[in-house]
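Do me a favour: review this protein, sequence plus structure tokens, and tell me how the chain folds. Record follows.
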Amino acid sequence: GSQEVTATITGDNYTSLVLTADLEVTPATVTDITFADDSFVYDGTAKSLVIAGTLPEGTSVSYSNNSRTDVGSQEVTATITGDNYTSLVLTADLTITPATITGVTFENGSFVFDGTEKSLAITGILSDGTSVSYASNSRTNVGTQEVTATITGSNYNTLVLTADLTITPADITGITLEDGSFVYDGTAKALAISGTLPDGTSVAYSDNSRTDVGSQEVTATITGSNHTTLVLTADLTITPATVTDITFEDESFVYDGTAKSLVIAGILPEGTSVSYSNNFRTDVGTQEVTATITGSNYNTQVLTADLTITPAEVDGVIFEDASFVFDGIAKSLAITGTLPDGTSVAYTNNSRTDVGTQQVTATITGSNYNTLELTADLTITPADITGISFDDASFVFDGTVKTLVIIGTLPEGTSVSYANNSRTDVGSQEVTATITGDNYTTLVLTADLTITPATIRGITFEDESFVYDGTAKSLAISGTLPEGTTVNYTDNSWTDVGRQEVTATISGANYTTLALTADLSVTQATLKIMMDEGLNKVVGEADPELTYTAAGFAMGEDEGILGGSPERESGEEVGTYAIGIGSLTTGDNYTIDFVGAEFEILMAEVDEPDTITGFVAQSLEVLWGTPETELNLPVETVVITSAGEFVNLAVEWDLMGYEPLEAGISSYFGVIEIPSGLINPDELQPTLEITVFAKPAPEDIILSANSFVAAPDQFFQEIGAFTVIDPTDNVHTLSLPDGVQDNGYFEVLDGILFWSSGEQAEGRTDFTILLRVTDRVGNVLEKDFQITRERTPLEQLEIANTFTPNGDGINDTWGVPALRYYSGVRISVFAVGGDRMFYTEDADVRWDGVFNSKEMPVGAYLYVIEVGETGEVKRGMLNLLSK
């Protein structure tokens, strides 16, 4: 530590002297102490390090991070401290190394194949913190493989063990091959094993097919890569067949004058035949027929059945009720259908004229048929009145009576009467027309009779404008009011400047109210104010009052309505300054026609004139293309005099040679009028430097349309027009660079994009082009455009169904060129018999009516059109004509 020491020197003859100094003891350094790295094999217990050497008296050691159990390394810190020593910090590495795994084995294993996966496992107890993983440790099929068991743990060295996993073949069980016997049916017979084959096995047969009657031994051999081969044998036997599924049924026929016979039902087995006896009859009656079926490979079968002929019935004839509308003529009924040969019909009670109903009888008889008696009702109904209409009608009120009438011709013997059929005033009523007659159904018709209000015509109401003069203004209608009508106005008075809508309403009891509107406007009167001429002052003096005269006031108004005052341009240097309207106002009812004047600041009188020694430099920057008429040229220039004064003078610039379409910097001279008191002996001129900026590149390009419908016979089709967005110029060159994207299919002429290619580009609908725009100074803008080529679907195409291949140059060939833009097109033409006459996959190819170098005959053919790209198919008839 440190402390202050005081030394006091004294003596009788001296003044005491007091001195001070610091006494400091500094810490000693700890030596002869080491802290070494140490390593331990993992055993599951915590390990730590200790320093080596003897600690000085009064010191102690403390450790940090000085305990480790698991494999790894860490830095331990030993700190030695004491009051009289500098602290000593030492570090060393504490390391735990992996232990070796013991007491675990991995043995070979063998299993008989059973279709399930087999695997091996280690034996022994794994140390805490270790685990085992296997590689190639799964096998199902017969064979041997090496399995690896890897035992790992964070605190142990990895242990790798290997063993063989073996699968041996299995025996096949549960399969039998039994003797089999089949009745002969003309087809080959075979035996089959019974039972379920193990997975992965198959069966092969030998001598396992027999058709004819007899017996043979069949062998079945079952093999599989995971099983022992199994051989089984059995006898295959074929026995004679019996004829089955043949029937011979009794059958009855209605007499029709032709001979009848019976036939067996069913399909005879191959190699058999049938013979009949007593199997023919025409007349009514019954007889037994015998059918005998024989065949070398079948038992003979004898069948019998009865053949019967019965009397015929009359059919195909009907007798239906009929109803007739009364027309004064007798009506009758008749059967429909064809009578069988040898039959006839007779009617009873079959005539009626008057309204009513009666039953008619038709009797059909014949020697070979049962008598047929039919009845039907003959009815006469009243007639309807037709061809008459009764329509609503509307009349505009005119003070006279209005009525309605029917339209059409009344049938003879009928008449019409009306009810409620008269109206004069506005309104609506239903009129009834009743038409009656003895032989007709009464017809009642209704219609609406309507009187509508009249429209007022010939009246106009026009807008009108008046110049403000201090008096009220109003509007009036033009034209003559109909009798009984009046007009009323609203908002029809206005004095001050402004506008309001006036409404004129014309009304009357028999007329539709008419509302007309017009604008009543009062516009500002013009007040002319003229500044007095010759207003001036000498430089340095105060401005005089700016005086003027005013004229054009409305009656009763004068200068008292004016407010504010005129003002001149700012500036106090010698020169002229324009006098403007300034803050001068007149109110809402006037507009000012202001005539200004020049205010001049004069130079003070001097003995000798001042000399012009120069001009203040002036410059102007403009956009490319700005015409001379739009230049914002300075109207004054500043003169520098020999007296050091700056004087503003009006200037006019000579812009000879100005070129707005050329970027760059150019200088131009100005002309001034020198006032009194100034001289210009050196004839100096003011200069103006004008900078024309470089032209900017075009901003964008717009295409008016980006799709078109492809026409098969047009290889030059307009698509859309390009518009170049360039605010500075309208002169540009448009081009499609060669070899870029799909530019080869297109062309640009006069700013219009065209499809310009005879190529099919089949299957494509979307194209991309790159358009290049170059302006007159060489700026280039390029932009991609997506173009869609639309195609007519097959189902919408009108396909020609006729052609005339006669060599006259007109309609000599047939094809479907509209499909040239599709992919996967197949066009076929077939003869009616099915032979293909023409085929192409190129829609540009047409058929000329020739097949195999021969002209095909006139006639009808079938075309089939397929579009692979869309999956569409269309069929139709094609007529080949001679001309």
